[in-house]
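Can anyone check this?
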Amino acid sequence: MKFKKLFLSLGLATALLAGGCAKQEKQSQPVLNKTQVIKKAQKSFKSGEATQTVILGTDTDKQKVSTKATFGGNPTVFHINYQTTSNGKTQTSEEWADHSNHLYINGQSSWYKAKLDQVTGHTYADLLDSIMHNEMLIDPPAKLTDAYKMKRKGNTYTLTANLKDKKIMQQAVDPVFITDTQSPKQQKVYRQLEKAGKFQSMTVKLVVKNQKMTSFSYHVNLKVGKLMKFTVSQSYNNMGSQDFLKIPTNALNGKPLPKAKPKKK
């Protein structure tokens, strides 16, 4: 009987020690600093969703162009949904882009295939630079890293920054101006507005949870003239959700995009 009690006591003690070790192990996860948080976020960049947005207008009238790109797979492919809103009307389009610089366009009744740069004015390499290798996250300027203020709640780290550095703001809007476009003319309009505008401010937010990035976003504000406002944004979420993304077969089998007929003089 005494042996049985001793055995039970030893078993209970072992369980308590094991539980204590597990608890201690859980609590011993090292606290990260700003640089470490940024590096953890950079390692999360394999797949996810990115949204680029350009908004131009006054307090009463706005025009909005947005690109939502789901990215992933090996090699990386992009599932792109464009949306343009102006004068209360919205136009949308669905496309896929691959590493061969091909663009697959949903024509509602059938899919079409064309060269990405010929239709949009930007290339597959531009998409990679803009979305997968965005400088604000992958190689942030020292002034942005210094400006970050960090808050920690358990294993969740939130970095926020407010900047008014023109050079950094120009770097931030550049990839959006290149790939948030459906035609070469659209990029020219963005550049003209940038030249006429005045950079005012930029906000940045990075969230890392359990050592992986959950979201990243930045917004750049410009003023054009006395009344016009110009906002340029890029954001990321659902990281790691599209590692096996593939272009559907019906899109890959798309017909050659018909060439536009020349206008009569």
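Reply from J.R.: I decoded it. DSSP finds nine helices and twelve strands in the chain.
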